[in-house]
Amino acid sequence: MGVAEKINFEEKAVNTEGLKAAFESLYEQIAERAADYDEQGAFVHENYQALKAEKLFAAGIPAELGGGGMSYSEIAEVVRELAQRCGSTALAYVMHSHPVLLNVYKYINKGDAQAEATLNKIAANDLVIAGTGANDWLQSSGNMEACEGGFKVNAHKRFVSGGPGAQVFVTSAVLETETGKEVLHFSVPFASEGIEIQSNWNTLGMRGTGSNDVLMNDVFVPEASIVARRPANQWHPMWDMIIPIAMPLIVSCYMGLAERAVELAIKQCKGNAEKAAEIGEMRNQLRAARLARDAMVLACKDLSFTPDLDNTDSILSYKALATKGIHAAVASASNLVGGSGFYKGNEVERISRDVRALHFHPLPETKQVQMSGRLALELSPF
Fold it and tell me: In degrees rounded to 5, what are phi and psi of residue 228?
């Protein structure tokens, strides 16, 4: 498909009510399992199996490629709803969804044949993706060496969320060339020889995401699996596609957690007029976060946005604002719930731990304000 033949989704609207109903049918059981997964620090296997049984990992793939045809904004709402039941399930689902939706973007806006083939394969085989994503950021990690037909990769990758439930590993590594270091982005099956998923995810929050380290020992990556090449340690325009797709979904996860915490706090304070002002302030904090999150989703324009630094700057600024509001709202909810919210097993206690992870997604505020300021001064982002 050429660029001139890109899909017009307004003309080819898909009825996604059945998919939404499928998600909704799973929410109660996902909520019931959340506390156990958190306590055990175990990956949310049953939730992944339930989502996979309904083919919900292909929900955002266009219908003509075998997917569910849900829009980007619909996926963002699903993530928010999932997080209200189980933050770990929602975040792991995001880490599958955003690389899928990046391929959807390339397919509908650029007529990318490789992206089309990838989406067809994911939908036809019910494949699930996990990757290192922004943990590698501009510099990446690990090394690649050219060999016959492709490359050999040796690397130690961290924060591979959803790895225990995935079949495809999306990551990058560094290739030394005559002109300097180059980062190559690629995907390989988790079943590839030389890939080993560790069992070392033992954290404060988001304990069910299975974000274990992944070791790559002489893993063969075919030349055909390389999807992008860029100079190491430099900004590349590919990030102007990735960030506007990934970050609104990530923030939607934490938005759902904050909404649930506020709901629980208000429920516990019912009829207590002395708490009215505190509740009002908490609602303001939540609304501020929601405004920023909604602005992020709108900026993605259901995958019709133009990738550029101005849009990326806006998305990252909204992320910083949403983070402040989410953290403040959850802290207020914890205070309102009181001492009972300090006990393990209390849902607000779990949410308080889970939302701390939002800071670590790109960009932490200290880096975001530096980047935004540099762009305002007409300097490079970093």
Answer: -160, 150
- Residue 304 structure tokens: 């019709």
Specify whether the CB–CB gap between 382 and 138 falls below 8 A. yes
Report CA 4 to chain centroid distance, whole Å: 30
Cα gap 258→249, rounded to integer Å: 15
The DSSP secondary structure of 196-252, one letter per residue, reads EE------SS-TTS----EEEEEEEEEGGGEEEEEETTS--TTHHHHHHHHHHHHHH
**Beta strands at 214-222 and 195-197: parallel, antiparallel or unpaired:** antiparallel
Q: Is the pTM of this model over 0.90?
A: yes
Residue 173 contacts residue 150 (beta carbons within 8 Å) = no
Measured over the CA atoms of residue 298, residue 303, residue 307 and residue 312, the dihedral's sign is positive
CA distance 53 to 228: 32
CA distance 120 to 371: 37
Above pLDDT 70, what percent of the chain? Answer: 96
In Å, how far are 95, 184, 219 from 110, measured between CA atoms?
23, 20, 30
Q: Report d(CA 172, CA 156) in Å as an integer.
A: 11
Nearest to residue 166, comparing CAs of 45, 22, 36? Answer: 45
Whether the pLDDT of residue 4 is over 60: the answer is no
Decide if 88 contacts 44 (C-beta within 8 A): yes
- Residue 12, SS3 per DSSP: coil
